[in-house]
Amino acid sequence: MNRIEETIQRIDITSGKAIRARARARLEQLTMPLWALGKLMDLAERLAEMTRSLRPPVARRTIVVMAGDHGVAKEGTSAYPQEVTTQMVGNFVAGGAGINALARQAGAQVVVVDMGVCGDLQHLVREQKILSYTVGPGTANMTVGPAMSREQAIESITAGIDVAHKFADSTDLYGTGDMGIGNTTPSSAIVSLLCGAPVEKVTGRGTGLGDQQLLHKIKIIEKSLQANTPDPSDAVDVLAKVGGFEIGAIAGLILGAAGLGKPILIDGFISTAGALLAAHLAPSTKRYMISAHQSVEPGHRIALHHLGLHPLLDLELRLGEGTGCALAMHLVEAACRVLTEVATFEEAGVSEAN
């Protein structure tokens, strides 16, 4: 785990404190009632600390969509067939997916990474339209054994760190995204374990399951936990036993961004499962996380509460792909503009409140 340990050791949690204090002092003197822009000002203060700057850079934006398939999908836990993962990667490349439209509006580049898709994507790799960090052709069926080996779990996390570094010179603000049919199933298992919550409380309908399908999904997750007995004190063991290659890579991307001292927006339920893994490996990563939105998945609220993150948006999203990050990027820019463009009472010559 040398690469992971080195990254964790690089995460800076002290040098931004003085800048944060200066940012707060300025925000308290802006020409408006004290803290009148509420959570937007909270975010501005945090961004100053993360970037160690009173002018936080956020203009260069990269949303990384980690893609992978899941053996547990064979158990019928998704409303869509597994080949949709491969088909949607093609749609991302063609620019026709939800994330493409919203990223264009947000001025963000979309990077697609094959972490372990079952279908053939080599032509897209050769054409340099996607990156390949393939750990395997999808995970194993976690109802009968571990989803992956411990070595593969470490490999997936390390890949996410490498992707963060690959785009470090062209990125100020990262966003997480995912694609993988069936991936709310391992995400629910991860959230249940790391948050200490019952499976039925953290499991939702994913891509649109009916009542009976939802009950079946809950039973599949419970069966997987019983078959593997993951150690909730060991994030790598949890990932290996009941995780996914793309979920591990999201955890690595978060670790990498934090190690680089750059903010990272966390998308929906799957991304937040990755964030839980990252936070268990290095609690300091939470300083660099920004929750983009609250999804309709019941486990998402529990996971965000466990992380101490407050979502910027609540639009009843349930798509993934990084779409929530693209929408939230507008708010991140707005927070920066409040800090840098709004005049103080002294600068504007405006009388303060009595």
Outline the structure in words.
The protein is α/β, with parallel strands linked by helices and 354 residues long. 51% of the residues lie in helices and 9% in strands. Helix 6 links the parallel strand 2 (108-116) and strand 3. It is built from 16 helices and 6 strands. Helix 11 packs antiparallel against helix 13 (269-281) and helix 13 packs parallel to helix 14 (298-307). A 6-stranded parallel sheet has the order 3-2-1-4-5-6, with helices on both faces. The protein folds into 2 domains: 2-56 and 338-348, Nicotinate-nucleotide-dimethylbenzimidazole phosphoribosyltransferase (CobT), small domain (5,6-Dimethylbenzimidazole Phosphoribosyltransferase, Chain: A, domain 1), CATH 1.10.1610; 61-332, Rossmann fold.
Class of secondary structure makeup: alpha/beta
Separation of the first and last Cα atoms: 58 Å
Overall geometry comes to: globular
Lateral arrangement of strands in the main beta sheet: 3-2-1-4-5-6
CATH architecture of the largest domain: 3-Layer(aba) Sandwich
Write down how many β-strands occur, each being a DSSP E stretch of 2 or more residues: 6
CATH class (first level) name of the largest domain: Alpha Beta
Helix-strand pattern, N to C? HHHEHHEHEHEHHHHHEHEHHH
Content of β-strand: 5-15%
Number of helical stretches of at least 4 residues: 16
The largest sheet is: 6 strands, parallel
**Arithmetic mean pLDDT:** 97
Instruction: Output the radius of gyration.
Output: 20 Å
- Could you name the CATH homologous superfamily of the largest domain? Nicotinate-nucleotide-dimethylbenzimidazole phosphoribosyltransferase (CobT), large domain
Number of domains: 2
Outline the low-pLDDT stretches.
none
The CATH topology of the largest domain is given as Rossmann fold
* Percent in helix: 40-55%
